[in-house]
Design goal:
The complex is a heterodimer of chains A (413) and B (615). With 413 residues, chain A is mainly alpha-helical. Chain A has one domain. Helix content of chain A is 69%, strand content 2%. Chain A has 15 helices and two strands. A two-stranded antiparallel ribbon of chain A has the order 1-2. In chain A, strand 1 and strand 2 form a beta hairpin. The two termini of chain A are 27 Å apart. With 615 residues, chain B is an alpha+beta fold. Chain B has two domains: 190 residues, Alpha-Beta Complex (Penicillin-binding protein 2a (Domain 2)), CATH 3.90.1310; 317 residues, Beta-lactamase (3-Layer(aba) Sandwich). Helices cover 36% and strands 18% of the residues of chain B. In chain B, the strands form five sheets. In chain B, strands 2, 3, 4, 5 and 10 form a five-stranded mixed sheet that branches. A five-stranded antiparallel sheet of chain B has the order 12-11-17-16-15, sandwiched between helices. Chain B has a three-stranded antiparallel sheet with strand order 1-8-9. Chain B is elongated. Chain B starts with 5 loop residues before the first helix and ends in a 36-residue tail after the last helix. The C terminus of chain B is likely disordered. Classes of the chains: A mainly alpha (413), B alpha+beta (615). At the A-B interface, helix 11, helix 12, helix 13 and helix 14 of A face helix 1 and helix 2 of B.
């Protein structure tokens, strides 16, 4: 292995993020009364070690072999998801769900995290194998199925946050292969319709706008009808779906809209998160000194709400630095995807970027109430074995793609 | 062009990077809003999360008599309160506390409701907790996260039943009171004064609550108890009253057993200072502290003896014979009579007024009397005629002038206003314009009929009689800065001086002869207020020494039958005050049986008697 061929910027950025994440995780455990977060950074260190070994292994696998292996990995992940749905258990902040696979009471991991990576690989394989990018809604159907199956299975757990991540992956990868933004909009339209259905006026306006769009884009008639029909259908079933949501999911959406509805229960997370962030001010309260964290006002401060710990202790300055690090990280991923020597690798890295971006934006966005609370981890920061390993495997893959591109002699410019 | 042609890829990479940076810019903007623009507000919220103020209730001011005898003070007691992050946690800890601290269902519900109302503050679970409970809880403190125990001052009345009505009592402020301006300094659970001096001087007694900050975590567990911040409470002002506790105690000791209901007031006529005020039956105001027992409360409320009523300022009685002095004063003021004036009809045991015969209390009659003698012997026939001479309208108007239509303004809450007809329109509305006759005038002249006064109101009048300047002092328990020059003038001083002579004769050789004290010149007036519900009420108001009055004492004893039974008690009170504890008359009171009983009143119905002003 030639060290010189490793992508140094990516390696440095990721190492910095991991170091920062570990430090914050350590701080999250420093509370006046011990919590589950106490000393958890040591366990995270173990996962990190496992992840690094995994990344080193996957780094050695040629994308060609990976591409060949992909269907088996994908089917394996789907099977695991299905099994989880039957025998899964809940844990931590989501006790009521079935997202964990356990044998003999020992929790092995969350198959949904693995499925994210498997879906990226599968979709990359599918898109790379096509002659060109999908040009109509119908041509998007295979991609939709590849993402849709794990999405549905995860959604049934129910784990809304992870399901959302699959959508992020889907749109990021399709965008990368050059699918027209308008087509993506059409693909997304039923979902938009679903959300807008809560306000009849907004929904009506959306349907009108969609009709105009369809007339202007002039897709196949049938396609247009299906898209339009889907939108109407979503608008109609929205209420039915809403009542079908678990109570905690309904509450999460409601308290996103107005956290003061029930400040002591549902809205508690978001209110305390904002207090932690806001009280951090410009320079923060100092490492380990965050009172919101120390006095256990922050919920899930080692997993979903780890970012407010950073914001509270390092202030706006710390936030800017960490956000810049993430932005840099994504810029590097985009560069690597762009310079990949083969289409599979190219699309795959775009998928990894989509996965990470969805996690980062959703996780950070929810802590400041830009987005509803869904409970998905922040890459490199949040405690969690499965996700940490998946993140590091993705980095391993990406490093391999970067390595290959250098060997292949594709130079910038 | 293929999608993965370097040029298209490069364009897309550019777009993707732009998107990424834009998204992070938005995120950064959101953080900027919270951390830079909103930082102050969130810092406050974070501080409010971190520290909870635990109120340190201010001890109420103590209440003392003129010699410094403590009438109301504070003793330490334990208060258990609870802080919790949410209702479920609160209920859980409350349930486990309830295993050691008995809480009835009602109290439990009240505590829960309080929590819902103000979930961020510690909620009082139990006040004045017994030591056994405190010890049991303290031992297991770690299993009650959020529980706070501290000592708080508790009101205590060392001489409870002697001064009960005077002091009033204390109780937790109610929801409605919290909203009012009067209790601006109170918070939920603050103990405030109710009734009596506690209520009247609530503002002065209240003091200023302090607080201490306790660092708590999200579950309400105390992280740092002391040393964060502490503002000591400021005790309320000491209330120095004009009361003479020795005298007050003496009154309760000698208050006759036969009259278990009644009131006594002793007052210094020179400045209106109330020396003693007793209302029987009394109650123990300590029972109110920490909430009165409902059974006891119902017993008090339903009792015929109405122990919670302060008869000295809230009991309304017909003024009866003591009223004759008021009538005499009106007549002197108007110049209708002088002390030597006699009436056309001499007393032969009654007075024929048209078809009606109005009896004098003495069936054998008094013969021909001057005004002075009529006062001395309390002759009804004389005053019937004096009333007719004055006329009803003028009598009513003059009574208002003297102050009989209004409250005295004593510094106690709940004083009853006398029921006093200001003009004859009162009778018109009561009986209809043609429904009453001038017979009213006769009845009214001897203090019966539509005129009821409180003891304190009569005291004010007799204190005026005891003074040399014709001013009526305003009774006061807590001396204010105002001087006696501010008391209203209600009569000419020379007329008042004239009246004092026959008043002394009442005691020397009149109806109150049984209450004479050697070596002390006492003036006074007995009375019998007709009571349609049973035995008559007995009045006596007196002052001494006559040449320089220093004390006025008035008493009313319900079912006391006659003032002459009350007079000896009043004399002993006066003697005790003026001559000291050794001066006691040295013999048991000889209760003298009735001598100047007022005759039974005729029912006043329309008859052949002319109404005033008609011909």
């Amino acid at each position: 292995m030639r060290r010189a061929g490793l992508d140094t910027p990516l390696l440095l950025t990721v190492t910095t993020l991991l170091g920062l994440g570990l430090a914050i995780l350590y701080s999250a455990g420093q509370t006046d009364f011990p919590t589950i977060a106490t000393g958890i950074w040591q366990r995270q260190l173990v996962w990190l070690g496992v992840g690094v070994i995994g990344a080193a292994l996957i780094f050695r696998i040629s994308p060609r072999i990976l591409e060949w292996l992909t269907p088996f990995v994908y089917i394996g992940a789907i099977v695991l998801l299905a099994v989880t749905l039957v025998v899964g258990t809940g844990a931590g902040t989501a006790v009521g769900t079935k997202s964990w696979l356990a044998i003999g009471g020992i929790r092995l991991g969350q198959p949904s995290e693995l499925a994210k990576l498997a879906t990226i690989l599968m979709l990359a394989r599918h898109l790379a194998g096509r002659r060109g990018q999908p040009r109509s809604a119908f041509e998007l159907i295979p991609s939709g199925i590849i993402v849709g199956i794990p999405l549905l299975l995860v959604g049934l757990q129910p784990d809304l946050g992870s399901a959302l991540v699959f959508l992020g992956i889907f749109f990021a990868m399709l965008f990368w292969v050059g699918v027209s933004p308008w087509l993506l909009l059409l693909a997304a339209s039923p979902m938009i319709s679903l959300f807008l259905a809560f306000s009849t006026g907004l929904w009506g306006a959306w349907i009108v706008a969609l009709t105009v769009l369809l007339v202007w884009l002039r897709p196949y008639i049938l396609e247009a009808l299906v898209v339009w029909g889907m939108n109407v259908l979503m608008g109609v079933v929205a209420l039915r779906l809403w009542t079908g949501l678990a109570l905690y999911q309904q509450n999460r959406i409601l308290s996103f809209l107005n956290p003061e509805i029930d400040p002591r229960a549902t809205g508690w997370n978001i209110i305390q998160s904002r207090v932690a962030i806001g009280s951090g001010g410009i320079f923060g309260k100092g490492f380990v000194e965050g009172t919101q964290k120390r006095l256990a006002f922050l919920p899930a401060q080692h997993t979903d709400f780890i970012y407010p710990v950073l914001a509270e202790e390092f202030g706006f300055v710390g936030v800017l630095i960490s956000l810049a690090l993430f932005a840099l990280f994504f810029t590097i991923l985009i560069r690597i995807a762009r310079h990949a020597v083969d289409t599979f690798s190219c699309v795959m890295v775009a998928g990894v970027a989509g996965l990470m971006l969805t996690h980062v934006v959703e996780n950070v966005g929810m802590t400041v109430k830009l987005l509803p609370v869904t409970g998905i981890p922040l890459p490199f920061y949040s405690y969690g074995g499965s996700f940490m390993i998946v993140c590091l495997l993705s980095i391993g893959l990406t490093l391999r793609v970067a390595w290959d591109s250098r060997l292949g002699g594709y130079l910038e410019g | 062009m293929n999608w993965n042609h370097p040029h298209t890829l490069s364009r897309r990479a550019f777009a993707a990077s732009g998107f990424v940076w834009a998204v992070f810019l938005v995120l950064g903007g959101a953080f900027f809003r919270l951390q830079v623009l909103g930082s102050d507000q969130y810092a406050v919220q974070s501080r409010n999360n971190q520290y909870r103020p635990i109120a340190l209730p201010a001890p109420r001011g103590i209440i003392v008599d003129r010699n410094g005898v403590v009438l109301a003070t504070n003793v330490p007691s334990f208060t258990i309160s609870l802080l919790a992050p949410n209702e479920t946690a609160f209920r859980a800890v409350l349930d486990s506390i309830a295993q050691y601290a008995p809480l009835d269902a009602e109290r439990y519900a009240a505590v829960m409701q309080r929590y819902r109302r103000s979930p961020d503050n510690p909620i009082d679970v139990m006040r004045d907790a017994p030591f056994a409970v405190v010890a049991a809880l303290e031992e297991r403190k770690s299993s009650f996260p959020g529980m706070i125990m501290q000592t708080e001052p508790k009101r205590f009345y060392p001489h409870a039943d002697i001064v009960s009505h005077l002091l009033g009592h204390v109780g937790e402020v109610s929801e409605e009171e919290l909203a009012s301006q009067r209790f601006a300094r109170a918070r939920m659970g603050t103990v405030v004064g109710r009734g009596g001096l506690e209520g009247q001087y609530q503002d002065r007694l209240q003091g200023f609550d302090g607080h201490r900050l306790v660092e708590v975590d999200a579950l309400g567990r105390t992280i740092k108890d002391e040393g964060v911040e502490r503002l000591e409470p400021v005790q309320g002002d000491t209330l120095e009253t004009s009361l003479d506790f020795e005298l007050q105690k003496y009154i309760t000791d000698i208050f006759p057993a036969f009259g278990d209901r009644g009131a006594v007031i002793a007052m210094d006529p020179r400045n209106g200072a109330v020396l003693a005020m007793y209302s029987a039956p009394s109650y123990d105001p300590n029972e109110f502290i920490g909430g009165v027992d409902p059974d006891l409360w119902n017993e008090w409320l339903s009792s015929e003896a109405t122990p919670l009523l302060n008869r000295a300022i809230q009991g309304l009685y017909p003024p009866a014979s003591p009223w004759k002095l008021a009538l005499a004063l009106m007549a002197l003021e108007r110049g209708v009579v002088d002390m030597e004036t006699t009436m056309p009809v001499q007393c032969n045991g009654g007075y024929q007024y048209f078809s009606r015969y109005f009896r004098c209390w003495r069936a054998s009659g008094h013969g021909e009397l001057t005004l002075a003698e009529a006062i001395q012997h309390s002759c009804d026939v004389y005053f019937y005629q004096l009333g007719l001479k004055l006329g009803l309208e003028d009598m009513l108007r003059d009574g208002v002038q003297v102050g009989f239509s209004r409250k005295t303004g004593v510094d106690l809450p709940g004083e009853m206003s006398p029921v006093y007809p200001v003009t004859t329109a009162y009778f018109d509305s009561l009986y209809g314009p043609s429904g009453w006759t001038n017979a009213i005038t006769l009845n009214w002249a001897i203090g019966q009929g539509e005129n009821t006064q409180t003891l304190i109101s009569m005291m004010r009048f007799y204190a005026m009689l005891a003074r040399n300047d014709g001013r009526a002092p305003i009774p006061q328990l807590v001396p204010s800065d105002g001087n006696d020059r501010s008391f209203p003038v209600v009569a000419r001083a020379e007329n008042v001086a004239l009246l004092r002579v026959p008043l002394e004769m009442v005691v020397e050789s009149g109806t109150a002869v049984a209450s004479r004290i050697r070596n002390l010149r006492v003036a006074g007036k007995t009375g019998t207020a007709q009571n349609p519900h049973g035995l008559d009420h007995g009045w006596y108001l007196g002052f001494a020494p006559v040449d320089d009055p220093q004390i006025v004492v008035g008493a009313i004893i319900e079912f006391g039958e006659h003032g002459s039974r009350v007079a000896p008690m009043v004399s002993r009170i006066i003697a005790r005050y003026l001559l000291g504890p050794d001066s006691d008359l040295g013999r048991p009171i000889r209760w003298v049986l009735p001598s100047d009983s007022v005759p039974t009143a005729d029912t006043l119905r329309p008859g052949p008697i002319r109404r005033p002003g008609t011909r």
